[in-house]
Write a structure and sequence with these properties.
GO cellular component, one term: endoplasmic reticulum membrane
Main location: endoplasmic reticulum
Protein name: Cytochrome b5 heme-binding domain-containing protein
Shape: elongated
Radius of gyration: 23 Å
Low-confidence stretches: 1-15
Organism: Prolemur simus
CATH class of the largest domain: Alpha Beta
Number of strands: 6
CATH superfamily of the largest domain: Cytochrome b5-like heme/steroid binding domain
Bound molecules: protoporphyrin IX containing FE
Number of domains: 2
Number of helices: 10
CATH topology of the largest domain: Flavocytochrome B2, Chain A, domain 1
Order of helices and strands: HEHEEEHEHHEHHHHH
Mean pLDDT: 92
Strand content: 5-15%
Pathway: Lipid metabolism; polyunsaturated fatty acid biosynthesis
């Protein structure tokens, strides 16, 4: 691909793999939308041509262009075995043997701590959702919505009734806000599709918002939390600024 001419390939001595090897210095040069590489488990992928077809959107990939994306890749894809099938055609090489697994300015101890935390949380089964809890949560929301409609149907739209209904709907809308968040994070069901179905029902049908819009923004928030300007939730400049320094777009 386009990288081959720029990279300095050091073919491995013998055996299984004949991948080109790259240093971080080389990889970090490919950090633009028009030329983006990223690293997952020490393997280097050129995602330039594929970014527009990425189901999670182009932007999250560009946020990681020229960087190690191992942990974030693991975190955002629910059905890893399926997602991994798409990796093979994008593979262009691997990190040179002497290179650290993350960019040099990253705190490798912090990365190691995070990976250990993930393992502990997995071992504690904390990623296995209790479906009974989520069913009751959904039931509570639907009961309040139906109750509001029935009240309107039965007692008309006087001020008293309207205020009572507003009370019911405020609770149900706040609760569906929490539940849509869990579904949007794909954390209820093991299948990505079921999470998306529930998410669409809650967002599009109950709340009148776009689930895709929310996911697109919220995944950016989680893959680059509080990193200005990549995290859209950190762009509060038009409303207010906190701290002593004016944020700058570079
Ligand atoms: C080259 C590496 C990557 C490949 C081959 C890949 C592939 C895929 C595939 C096949 C899906 C659809 C999964 C599904 O519907 O269950 C997906 C979704 C997604 N990917 Fe990636 N991805 C890559 C890298 C990344 C990176 C680095 C990020 C974040 C920084 C990311 C963020 C997402 C997000 C947010 C979704 C949407 C999840 C959803 O709403 O279901 N991906 N990706």
């Amino acid at each position: 691909g386009q990288g081959a001419s720029e990279a300095s390939p050091h073919p491995r001595s013998a055996g299984e793999s004949h991948l080109n090897t790259y240093t971080w210095q080389e990889i970090q040069r490919h950090n633009q939308q028009a030329d983006q590489w990223l690293v997952i488990n020490r393997k280097v992928y050129d995602v330039t041509g594929w970014a527009d077809r990425h189901p999670g959107g182009r932007r999250v990939l560009t946020h990681y262009a020229g960087e190690d994306a191992t942990d974030v890749f693991r975190a955002v894809h629910l059905e890893l075995d399926v997602v991994q099938l798409y990796l093979k055609p994008l593979l262009i090489g691997e990190l040179a043997p002497g290179e650290p697994s993350q960019e040099r300015h990253k705190n490798s101890q912090l990365v190691k701590d995070f990976q250990e935390l993930r393992k502990t949380v997995e071992a504690m089964n904390m990623f296995d959702a209790n479906l009974g809890f989520f069913f009751l949560h959904l039931a509570q929301i639907l009961i309040l919505e139906v109750l509001a409609w029935l009240t309107l149907y039965q007692f008309g739209s006087s001020w008293h009734v309207t205020i009572f209904i507003a009370f019911l709907l405020t609770i149900s809308q706040a609760q569906s806000g929490f539940l849509q968040h869990d579904a949007g994070h794909l954390s209820i069901f093991k299948k990505s599709k079921w999470n998306h179905l529930l998410h669409k029902f809650l967002m599009c049908h109950l709340k009148g918002l776009s689930g895709t819009w929310w996911n697109y923004g919220h995944f950016q928030h989680h893959v680059k939390t509080n990193i200005y300007p990549k995290d859209p939730d950190s762009k509060l400049g038009p409303y207010f600024l906190v701290g002593d320094l004016q944020p700058k777009c570079s």
